[in-house]
Amino acid sequence: MRVLVVEDEQLLADAVATGLRREAMAVDVVYDGAAALERVAVNDYDVIVLDRDLPLVHGDDVCRKVVELGIPTRVLMLTASGDVSDRVAGLELGADDYLPKPFAFSELTARVRALGRRTTVALPPVLERAGIKLDPNRREVFRDGREVQLAPKEFAVLEVLMRSEGAVVSAEQLLEKAWDENTDPFTNVVRVTVMTLRRKLGEPAVIVTVPGSGYRI
């Protein structure tokens, strides 16, 4: 899952990004509304965590623009105000969910994951395919009943492949969904991660390489 965090309180923004990355999400961070619009124009995000009170371009205007462009990204709006009228106003702008500050990080993570599931065809919370069981909320993976310990990026790649339900996923798509914008697109990081993931999942191999196209389970 790829997430854009838009928050002008840099310490909070960086803390949220770090926490989400530990949950195997690819996260980009910006600190104002103008930068948010620039990122949305060039990258595809599953969820935007959007502070409402932003400099340069207000969070309301960022939300309006996302809706106007018809982007399927889900918006989780943050605000220091807990007034019902503010929550209603944010939802009427096109936000998909609303979370007042201060918030528990566990709740933020749960809401981001819930919104991420809504960007695609609805799938069950726990994914199962080819003897693999993946629980995004618990960060657990089992292969034929055996628990498999994965690094965050390995988990992220496996989740993308599981969610594709047998469709081929290109290396570019994996790079986009599992890594942030600071990753060099010309590295072999995807191939290396898939190789490590195959080894940890064990035999028989369930990740199939489709020459010239990508990978699938």
TrEMBL record:
Which sequence positions fall in the DNA-binding region? 124-217
Pfam families to which the protein is assigned, alphabetical: Response_reg, Trans_reg_C
- A GO cellular-component term linked to this record: protein-DNA complex
- Sorted alphabetically, which keywords does the UniProt record give? DNA-binding, Phosphoprotein, Transcription, Transcription regulation, Two-component regulatory system
Q: Which residues cross the membrane?
A: none
Q: Name one GO molecular function term.
A: transcription cis-regulatory region binding
- 4-aspartylphosphate PTM positions: 51
Outline the extent of the Response regulatory domain: 2-116
Where does the signal peptide begin and end? none
Gene Ontology biological process terms, A to Z = regulation of DNA-templated transcription
Locate the OmpR/PhoB-type domain: which residues? 124-217
Q: Please give the InterPro entries that the UniProt record associates with this protein.
A: CheY-like_superfamily (IPR011006), OmpR/PhoB-type_DNA-bd (IPR001867), Sig_transdc_resp-reg_receiver (IPR001789), WalR-like (IPR039420), WH-like_DNA-bd_sf (IPR036388)
What does the record list as coiled-coil region(s)?
A: none
Gene3D superfamilies (UniProt xref): 3.40.50.2300, 6.10.250.690, Winged helix-like DNA-binding domain superfamily/Winged helix DNA-binding domain
Source taxon at top rank: Bacteria
Please give the function described in this protein's UniProt entry: Member of the two-component regulatory system CutS/CutR, involved in the regulation of copper metabolism. CutR suppresses a defective melC1 gene, encoding a putative copper-transfer gene, probably by altering copper metabolism.
Q: What protein name applies here?
A: Transcriptional regulatory protein CutR
